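FIELD: query
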Amino acid sequence: MRLKTFAVLLLAPAVLVLLGGCGGNDNNKNATSSTSTTPTTKTVGAPGAKVSFVTPKDGSTVGPTVNAKVKLSGFKLAPNQVGKPAKQGEGHLHFALDEGKYDLPKYSGANGKLAVKLGVQGKYSPSVTPSITYKGLPPGNHKLEVYLANNDHTNTGVEASTSFTVKSGATNSGAAGSGSSGGGY
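FIELD: result
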């Protein structure tokens, strides 16, 4: 019994030292060793790519249906490559309304249904077109973000956002399009 107690007391400081290092913020780590990756987990960006909102305009007032549209440059939407390995400069879009709060089928339609299928509902609504429609939004201020995503759904680091206000009984000023949902993975 004393031997076991002695062993535990002897090992306890070593265990605490090891646990103390887990999850810590060590800014002196060697960047090469802490960021080395295998080809399957390599981050693929989109150098030179840009995305911006055409509608709704930042600061606009819209109705409960918002037809959002973005303009892309230096990035190709590749619907037939979704789910395949990342390839620089191609992929699809991830829209997130109020940090995903409205990225559900009730609000983002076909895009929301796809989010459910992918297990990302409440986080973002995927799209292979440069547009998305949100319906039935409550009055108030909202922020819509879009991220360029690689074929494998990883983020390229290229994004844009717009803020708008939904007024009760407001018209869709600031929203454009015919209501295309932007689905179709």
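FIELD: remark
The beta strands are 50-55, 60-62, 66-73, 76-77, 90-97, 125-127, 131-134, 140-150, 155-166.
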